[in-house]
Amino acid sequence: MGPVPVRYGYATFEEFLPEPFPMQKVAVEDMQKVATALAFQINLAQEFRVPAGLAMNPMRIRKPHLYPVPHSPLFDFERSAAGAEWIDDLAGLALRVRDQHSPDRVVMAHMDWCARNLRLGESGLLAVYDMDSLAVVPETTAVGQAAASWRLVLEDDDEIHPSLDELLTYIDQYQAARGSRFSEQEKVAAIAARLWLIAYTARCEHCGNPDGSSAIPRLRRDGALFKNILTAYV
Q: Which CATH number fits the domain that encloses residue 141?
């Protein structure tokens, strides 16, 4: 049950798993299970009153910045700004399109919906971890970011950066589980959310470990394609 108010915030109560399921990589064939499970999670959370604290997304961006406060003190975006202008250009475009075309409807969504935090069985979803990743965001932002990272197990997995075709397939499968389709503008907002997340990851790599990066090469390969798609919606 939960979240319920306690003295210093909110608490949730979860079922104890005496035999924890091992973390495993997922295959492309598992995409439908992952996308369907996200739709289930978002739908399940609709019945709860949103606690005020959850309205503050830890990845929120304060304008005119392009990024939130980095999730680790290892990343200093200001000190590493030189050479990252091309990343910032793509992040800025993605952010403008995402925010201009996001739906008014917001949802309570798990914002780290990836293989690292999910356990799947033949019947579908078995368990979800890292529930402090819940945040109140536009639905398209949740879906776009999940479509970018759904296969992620380790931080340096190349699978965090799926192709455009895989991204669109994920969105389609989410829509099927949702029971209704996004408008064209909402789908573009989800695509923009995916590009922004890759740009943020690339920015972290730029100031952390550019030689061992995976987001930077993907952004170099796909950046022009996404730029062409999104520019028409600015």
A: 3.90.1200.10
